[in-house]
User: Which sequence fits this backbone?
């Protein structure tokens, strides 16, 4: 149903067309951005600027009209005067609405209140806005407060959220800069960026339930990848000794503050390295990224002062569980683990067993204590079917996870490269699947075949870019750092 306001805009559209105005233009050549024009301004400078953007303020006073024009760099005041633009074109100003995209041409001047303004000599309607943007009102700091305040609505209509909230645009510009830094960092160290399949005949590389789709041409089901790992390791087997990929993975799980079923991972693998080499590399990368993005290694985030100066803390997995939960994992039985979970009111404690119990105890007791950047090292072997055994301790594997602000950000292994041991681990996962664990990994015969050709000692890392961006941009929900997150149907 069209609202009264929308109907009025469509009437203006019809009037514009009647007057011979093209309401949806093809092109407008700008002399630069609004911010660049403001920076170059000098009093009495006659330079004519051609600027374009969205009208976010419009105030008519008879024969003059003031407005604000905004592009991605900033906003500037525009001044329409009937004597400057001409009587007939000025009639078109009356047909403009907030949200319209226009181009203006004219010199800059400073008003009596000191605001740098475009004295418009010519203007062009570039796009007529048929639906009013929920612009709201600006406060003293220039931030808008209006109709678009519901977090879910903002995520659902991200285009409107971006259009009316410059600070939201800043979040995604920061995200792009962080990813650009990651690429620059790895490229400078000889890593090769590659692309691996999103549709896979056998999914693997993590413990998760996949999305399934049907490939009509082959009449077979395939899976959206849950991780990039197994194909990147195939690259290592093939002699591409340092590889990385930044791509989307998909896990068929619930929605929460920290989970979106489609998410972005960066994974990198290096031949002849182990998890310690990967730890040093990751620490250097993140410390350097924070320094480059913010000019400091200290960030104030959600009431905590996070210190990204090297070295980050290093903690032992078993020691952390012992300190936080009072449990010795080397000797604890399932009954003791379940009792610990019930003390934390974990609803499905009775349904968990084996590695799932251990993992849930760690999540419930230890993760809430890990605020500063912290590497947690040497996990139980049952939790890590793709990692090598820890040297000197066959009950553990050489694996670390990086935690910041109580959440896992990155995961790394000394990668398992023994094909026979890998087959045994996959077969153990198969038994878990048969017992009802839908997230246990599948046996991938082709991956084992690749290992049989010989994979050098390898270190590998997976970094969750969405969760990292939550910290960098100081956001509390994962949907606020994903341009178009998955949401329940309207």
Assistant:
């Amino acid at each position: 149903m069209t609202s009264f306001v929308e109907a009025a805009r469509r009437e203006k559209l019809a009037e514009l067309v009647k007057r011979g105005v093209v309401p949806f233009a093809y092109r407008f050549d700008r002399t630069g951005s609004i911010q660049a024009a403001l920076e170059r301004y000098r009093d009495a400078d006659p330079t004519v600027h051609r600027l374009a953007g969205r009208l976010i303020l419009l105030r008519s006073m008879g024969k003059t009209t003031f407005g604000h024009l905004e592009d991605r760099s900033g906003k500037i005041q525009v001044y329409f005067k009937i004597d400057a633009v001409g009587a007939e074109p000025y009639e078109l100003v009356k047909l403009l609405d907030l949200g319209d995209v226009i181009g203006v041409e004219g010199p800059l001047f400073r008003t009596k209140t000191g605001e740098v303004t475009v004295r418009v000599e010519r203007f062009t309607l570039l796009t007529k806005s048929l639906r009013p943007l929920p612009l709201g009102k600006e406060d003293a700091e220039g931030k808008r407060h209006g109709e678009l305040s519901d977090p879910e609505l903002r995520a659902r209509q991200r285009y409107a959220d971006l259009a009316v909230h410059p600070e939201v645009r800043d979040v995604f510009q920061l995200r792009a800069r962080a990813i650009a830094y990651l690429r620059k960092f790895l490229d400078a160290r000889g890593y090769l960026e590659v692309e691996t399949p999103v549709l896979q005949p056998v999914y693997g590389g993590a413990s998760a339930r996949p999305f399934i789709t049907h490939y009509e041409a082959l009449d077979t089901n395939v899976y959206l990848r849950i991780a990039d790992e197994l194909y990147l390791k195939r690259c290592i087997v093939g002699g591409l000794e340092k590889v990385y990929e930044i791509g989307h993975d998909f896990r068929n799980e619930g929605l929460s503050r920290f989970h979106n079923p489609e998410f972005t991972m960066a994974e990198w693998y290096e031949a002849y390295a182990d998890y310690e080499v990967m730890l040093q590399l990751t620490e250097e990368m993140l410390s350097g990224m924070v320094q480059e993005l913010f000019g400091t290694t200290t960030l104030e985030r959600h009431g905590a002062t996070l210190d990204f100066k090297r070295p980050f803390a290093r903690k032992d997995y078993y020691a952390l569980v012992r300190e936080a939960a009072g449990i010795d994992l080397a000797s604890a039985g399932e009954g003791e683990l379940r009792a610990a979970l019930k003390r934390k009111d974990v609803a499905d404690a009775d349904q968990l067993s084996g590695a799932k119990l251990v993992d849930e105890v760690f999540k419930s007791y230890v993760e809430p204590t890990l605020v500063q950047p912290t590497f947690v090292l040497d996990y139980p072997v049952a939790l890590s079917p793709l990692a090598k055994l820890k040297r000197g301790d066959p009950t553990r594997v050489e694996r670390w996870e990086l935690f910041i602000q109580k959440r896992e950000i990155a995961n790394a292994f000394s990668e398992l490269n023994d094909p026979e041991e890998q087959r045994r681990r996959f077969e153990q996962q198969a038994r878990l699947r048969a017992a009802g664990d839908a997230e246990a990994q599948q046996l991938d015969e082709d991956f084992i075949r690749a290992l049989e050709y010989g994979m050098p000692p390898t270190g590998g890392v997976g970094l969750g870019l969405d969760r990292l961006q939550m910290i960098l941009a100081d956001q509390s929900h994962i949907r606020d750092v994903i341009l178009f997150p998955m949401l329940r149907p309207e």
